[in-house]
Design a protein that fits this description.
Blueprint (H helix, E strand, L loop, with lengths): L28 H6 L13 E10 L2 E11 L3 E6 L6 H8 L7 E6 L2 E3 L4 H7 L1 E4 L11 H5 L14 H15 L14 H14 L4 E5 L7 H16 L3 E5 L3 H7 L2 E6 L2 E7 L5
Parallel strand pairs: 3-8, 3-9, 6-7, 7-8
Antiparallel strand pairs: 1-2, 1-4, 4-5, 9-10
């Protein structure tokens, strides 16, 4: 059982005032280009929810009352032009930035992260386009950096760590040698290692920021297979991309952003 989030705060009555939930409709590509209002997802308690979030950097307003609602067991796309506010919204969820207004909820509980460490501890992981691993350490050492498994005499139990790393890769359906050094690994393999690290931390929200930009077609398909496995386990995934073909192939819901605002949320398939 997951420990209660130490940053969670009880919801006060009326905090959800003004929050309107609307029925989810099938995706219509024209709605993205013609600017028509789109439906919001509302299917029980969301794993991650940002309500009316605003953020400014000096005179530049990056977010204007933006809302994002990510359900468990779903892959949720976040799309929009450069400067639409996608990165800022995600960085607030990841604890990189503090929001100026609005609220954030994790599993229905209000949270407020002051650092990326707090966000990770609460179960939010971000997989970046080009992960930063320690090249001279093994794959396993990168996964368990700072939290090595200890055996007798409080010595690092490498065999237990190798076994755990191997089990993580098996669960993800990928073939990676946990003993090999990270040096020389492809971007695709480095992303898989970051995902394995997130799963080892029991992440319930995984945010993938333009993960396919540097991948080949085969590597993209492998990443999508892993993402679907995570979705089927009940985890919530946010997929940021400019490639609509990938969005429609992978994602269940699309949130469109423009000029710091969320235009709306739509289903990519008639049957969800």
């Amino acid at each position: 059982m997951r420990k209660k989030n130490p940053w969670a705060k009880g919801l006060d009555a009326g905090q959800a005032d003004g929050y309107v939930s609307r029925e989810l409709k099938p995706f219509n590509p024209l709605s993205m280009t013609q600017g028509r209002e789109m439906s919001m997802v509302d299917e029980g308690v969301a794993t991650l929810e940002l309500r009316g979030v605003s953020k400014a950097f000096g005179p530049v307003v990056a977010l204007r009352s933006a809302t994002l609602r990510v359900q468990p067991g779903s892959i949720h796309a976040l799309v929009g032009e450069n400067g639409a506010g996608k990165s800022t919204l995600i960085k607030i969820a990841a604890g990189v930035h503090r929001r100026d207004g609005g609220e954030m909820l994790l599993g229905g509980e209000r949270v407020d992260f002051g650092s990326t460490a707090e966000s990770k501890a609460a179960g939010i992981a971000v997989i970046y386009q080009e992960p930063t691993l320690f090249p001279d350490l093994s794959v396993t050492e990168n996964i368990f950096m700072g939290r090595q498994i200890l055996g007798k005499g409080r010595r690092i139990d490498r065999q237990a760590m190798y076994a755990e790393a191997d089990a993580l890769f098996t669960g993800l359906g990928v073939d990676l040698d946990p003993r090999r050094p990270a040096l020389g690994l492809s971007i695709a393999d480095q992303q898989i290692i970051e995902i394995a690290k997130a799963i080892s931390l029991d992440a319930r929200v995984l945010i993938m920021d333009e993960p396919t930009a540097a991948l080949s077609g085969v590597e993209v398909e492998r990443l999508f297979t892993v993402a679907r496995r995570l979705r089927d386990e009940g985890r919530a995934l946010v997929f940021i991309s400019h490639r609509f073909d990938e969005v429609f192939s992978l994602c269940d819901v699309v949130t469109v952003m423009r000029d710091g605002r969320v235009t709306g949320d739509v289903a990519t398939r008639p049957n969800g």
